[in-house]
Design goal:
The complex is a heterodimer. By secondary structure, chain A is of the alpha/beta class. In chain A, 51% of the residues lie in helices and 9% in strands. Chain A has 23 helices and 9 strands. Chain A is globular and about 65 Å long. In chain B, strand 7 and strand 8 form a beta hairpin. Chain B starts with 5 loop residues before the first helix and ends with a helix. Classes of the chains: A alpha/beta, B alpha+beta. At the A-B interface, helix 3 and helix 4 of A face helix 2 and helix 12 of B. Chain A: It catalyses: (R)-lactate + A = pyruvate + AH2; glycolate + A = glyoxylate + AH2.
Chain lengths: 409, 461
């Protein structure tokens, strides 16, 4: 950890890329500040208790990683620091309970479905609920979509070109089941058979990034057992956070006996936009129908797609490829929307301010449609665009493609 | 122990005065140097907040250090003794006045955002330090920052029309250039004469067309001669950037852009203007001069190609970071005619000390950045320091100066005695004593040691 810290030459180039610094204007809430805080804590100059508030405000969006000219691996740094420091943290009972609950409810679609349905009942009661629970309730949609259980296998249509495994995601299955359905339709239409290994579970990113390493390790190993990388052309994720999480497996298991398996798996993982973008580059993507009317689409870079996985070009090209679509750039697009996993629940005020900023920036482009590649961003942007009275719908890149294939865009 | 600034914290309200060790930790360094943890940090939002902070520091007899984004490379914003740091990052008010071609920016406005805000009005703010996505206008004024564009368009000081500043007693002044040019005095004063809270800067319409050329030379002599020939022929390129052989090698190792490794010097040149024919004609002047001097020339035909050629220059920082984690970024300026000797002597010094050293810079102004690369775990900091001093002496021997744009700060202060004659030193101190009689504004920075006889009078007064 100290080695990564030493790579920082404190030039400050990361400051403008950091959303919390943009809001608070205090260096301690900047990447450079957080790196120094971690260093001070590790070297015993500072207590964890004193450093924690600033470290807790970090969204883990990795905007700073993109901006850093010296290649400081901030993402790995904060993750390992949280893993190291979490067992030493002392929180209030209610906070601790909330944390534990989130980390265990989110990853299980069945439990999350139940919680979400229950939450809907509780929603009208929000004003009288304990303040700590309110942000979680605000996050829930007003109507929980009906949950369609995914089958374990979907055959290719027409000539079979390959075999894909789909990471189904956790909360996403409940909040936006159509992301997976659209993914399966587009892939099978392009000649890929799609397997959804039933033994798979949460990717582990949420637990890992909040410092619950034991929980994360269990989840990671469960997936290592569930996916047989050699059987598939690709293991596809359509949730930027989960995709980034899977690609991180080798780092998580670094030095452990199952590191080689993690590497084999990570080598096959691709985001859906990355995979389809590859087909497009090679001229192998099946043509889609033009949009039924000219469409201005504001594309929002999900942090875990753009910063963590470096995927920016492919989703834009896929959208632009549909005739009639114009892709709009969002001002200050590199800044996180404030969703960031469980951040919405743990730091509701900052998350709200960032969501508001993001919605304003997006709406300034006057889009007909807003597109992003991550469920977290989807929920956050929908909420805040709605609050600002914006009419544009928020969709996943794959939903847009799916509609284009059906001539319904 | 209660902090002398607890009362200030109550006065300004929550979140503006940081007192805990965690909150103050980051404010002890800038882009290069570490100093001491300040006693307190103030994050002012208004000029009144700044006044209150400066008054509190005066009452407590404690030094005040102004700070922008702390991207400085000379230790300017770093407290060296227990101090109050005033960090301007929340003062980001910005108004564009297109009709007057002016912008009014509070100290904490990020440099690039002035152009971003002005561009819709058909205007830009030209000074372009490589740090302009991060650095603040207050810090740019503090250092009189420059950048690649300064050969043609000038440095920060050439664009400042007026400044609002808070003096050491907490009085607010609005300085224009009406009587004595006190604005000019403050620019480049590195926070030693007052805290600037707002600047009015000049905007200009951006050039409509530009042309880009990359050229390599087998010797630095040939390169310097080519540049002089181009300038004598009447070319005023917008940018003229230089990289030495070691720097070319570092960038090649990092990105493999296909740069000529065997070359001793690489040049990047942009010409710009509103008339495409003229821009092209100017580039042809440059090209002819470079070819005549034996340069290998590549022209960019499209914007994408131009960006690709400039990528070499933009990649210098990250490329160096991969060789050694840290670098001492020197910043000297010498007469252009002396450049070949200076580059050769500095290269020889690097070899003598056995430390990797690369040189690049804004050759139009003779501004050179020799970078000593080192690893604090294996290289001896004293050696690095000594080498930096010898580089400074090379500049002075050739009639140059200690800083082209990064300032003197605390890093190069000790070399100032070599650079400034006693009479001038006395004049500097007379100004300092007049504006900051108890010496609390960014002490231990910029100025050479106080002449001894002044030391006496200062103590008695
Ligand atoms: C990778 C890199 C590249 C760089 N490239 C260039 C370059 O091309 N050209 C160049 O000139 N510089 C360059 N710099 C150096 C640095 O960015 C500049 O010196 C910049 O002007 C500093 O601005 P800042 O806001 O970071 O100021 P700081 O570093 O915070 O402060 C600089 C000085 O100004 C004083 N100061 C700050 N704000 C105020 C205020 N409001 N009132 C009074 N005094 C104040 C401080 O006390 C200090 O002495 C580079 C730095 C880095 C890290
Ligand atoms: S940009 Fe990178 S090297 Fe510079 S301060 Fe940030 S993390 Fe450190
Ligand atoms: S990960 Fe995001 S929030 Fe955290 S320090 Fe980096 S830019 Fe800031």
């Amino acid at each position: 950890m100290l080695h990564a810290i030493d790579a920082c030459v404190h030039c400050g180039f990361c400051l403008p890329a950091c959303p919390t610094y943009a809001l608070l204007g205090d260096e301690m809430d900047s990447p450079r500040g957080r790196i120094v805080l971690m260093k001070d804590v590790l070297e015993g100059e500072l207590s964890l208790h004193d450093a924690a508030p600033h470290l807790d405000r970090c969204l883990g969006c990795q905007g700073c990683v993109t901006a850093c000219p010296s290649g400081v691996a901030y993402g790995e740094l904060i993750t390992s620091f949280r893993g190291w420091s979490e067992p030493q943290r002392q929180r209030g009972l209610l906070l601790e309970a909330r944390r534990a609950a989130i980390l265990r409810v989110l990853p299980s679609p069945a439990v999350f479905q139940a919680a979400a349905t229950l939450g809907q009942v509780a929603k009208p009661l929000a004003p009288v609920m304990p303040k700590l629970l309110r942000p979680a309730l605000d996050l829930l949609p007003n109507r929980v979509p009906r949950r369609n259980r995914l089958r374990a296998f979907y055959p290719a249509q027409g000539l079979k070109r390959g075999r894909i495994a789909l990471l189904a995601g956790c909360a996403q299955q409940v909040l936006a089941p159509n992301f997976n359905e659209a993914t399966i339709r587009v892939l099978t239409l392009n000649g890929y058979e799609v397997a959804v290994p039933p033994e798979q579970g949460c990717c582990g990113a949420a637990a890992l990034h909040t410092g619950d390493r034991p929980l994360a390790l269990g989840q990671v190993r469960r997936n290592l057992a569930a996916f047989e990388p050699q059987e598939y052309d690709a293991i596809i994720s359509n949730a930027a956070g989960c995709g980034a999480g899977l690609k991180e497996y080798p780092a998580v298991l670094h030095g452990l006996p199952d590191q080689p398996q993690a590497e084999a798996l990570a080598a096959k993982v691709q985001d859906i936009a990355e995979f389809l973008g590859g087909l497009l580059d090679r001229g192998e993507l099946r043509p889609a129908l033009p949009a039924t009317r000219p469409l201005r689409i504001a594309y929002h870079d999900a942090c875990h797609l753009a910063h963590a996985q470096g995927i920016r070009r492919e989703p834009r090209e896929l959208l632009r490829w549909i005739s009639g679509v114009e892709v709009l750039e969002v001002p200050r697009g590199e800044l996180c929307c404030g969703s960031a996993g469980t951040y919405n629940i743990e730091q509701p005020e900052l998350a709200d301010q960032l969501g508001e900023l993001k919605a304003t920036s997006i709406l300034s482009t006057q889009p007909d449609l807003i597109v992003s590649g991550n469920i977290g961003c989807h929920t956050q942007i929908t909420t805040h665009v709605g609050r600002q009275g914006g009419a544009a719908r928020v969709m996943h890149t794959i939903e847009v493609l799916d509609l284009a294939y059906r001539g319904e865009l | 122990m209660t902090s002398p600034f607890a009362a200030l914290q109550r006065q300004l309200g929550p979140g503006k005065v940081l007192l805990s060790p965690a909150e103050r930790g980051n404010y002890r360094f800038d882009g290069i140097q570490f100093g001491v943890r300040p006693l307190a940090v103030v994050l002012p939002e208004t000029v009144e907040d700044v006044v209150a902070a400066v008054r509190a520091a005066k009452a407590a007899g404690i030094p005040v250090v102004g700070r922008g984004a702390a991207s400085g490379l000379s230790g300017g914003a770093v407290p060296l003794q227990p101090s109050l740091v005033v960090s301007f990052t929340r003062m980001t008010g910005l108004t564009i006045h297109p009709e007057r071609r002016e912008a009014v920016a509070q100290a904490g406005v990020v440099t690039l955002s002035i152009s971003d805000a002005a561009r819709p009005h058909g205007l830009v703010y030209p000074p372009d330090p490589a740090s302009f996505r991060t650095s603040t206008i207050g810090g740019n004024l503090g250092e009189n920052a420059g950048g690649p564009l300064c050969f043609k368009y000038g440095v920060t000081g050439d664009y400042v029309l007026g400044v609002e500043m808070v003096d050491t007693d907490g009085e607010v002044h609005r300085l224009g250039r009406d009587a004595y040019d006190l604005t000019g005095l403050l620019i480049g004063s590195e926070g030693t004469l007052g805290l600037m809270t707002e600047a009015t800067v000049r905007l200009v319409p951006p050039a409509k067309y530009s042309r880009t050329l990359q050229a390599s030379f087998t010797s630095v002599e040939a390169c310097a001669a080519a540049v002089s020939a181009a300038v004598s022929a009447g070319a005023v390129p917008a940018k003229m950037e230089f990289m030495d052989g070691a720097c070319i090698g570092a960038v090649e190792d990092y990105l493999g852009l296909g740069l000529p490794r065997e070359a001793a010097a690489l040049m990047l040149v942009d010409t710009d203007g509103d008339d495409p024919a003229q821009v092209e004609a100017e580039m042809q002047l440059v090209e002819a001069a470079f070819l005549a001097a034996g340069g290998q020339v590549r022209r960019a035909e499209t914007e994408t190609e131009a960006a690709a050629l400039w990528q070499a220059r933009r990649s210098v920082s990250p490329a160096l970071g991969r060789i050694r984690p840290l670098r001492m970024n020197e910043d000297i300026a010498v007469p252009r005619s002396r450049l070949p000797q200076v580059v050769a002597e500095i290269r020889a010094l690097g070899e003598e000390y056995g430390l990797p050293l690369v040189q690049f810079g804004h050759i139009g102004d003779g501004n050179l950045h020799p970078n000593i690369l080192y690893d604090p775990r294996s290289d001896d900091p004293a050696q690095v320091h000594e080498l930096a001093h010898r580089i400074a002496l090379v500049a002075l021997q050739h009639g140059g100066v200690l800083s082209g744009e990064h300032g003197i700060g605390s890093m190069k202060r000790e070399f100032m005695a070599d650079a400034v004659d006693p009479v001038t030193a006395e004049a500097y101190w007379a100004v300092k004593d007049a504006l900051d009689p108890d010496g609390r504004l960014n002490p231990d920075k910029l100025l050479p040691p106080r002449p001894t006889h002044l030391e006496d009078s200062h103590v008695h007064s």
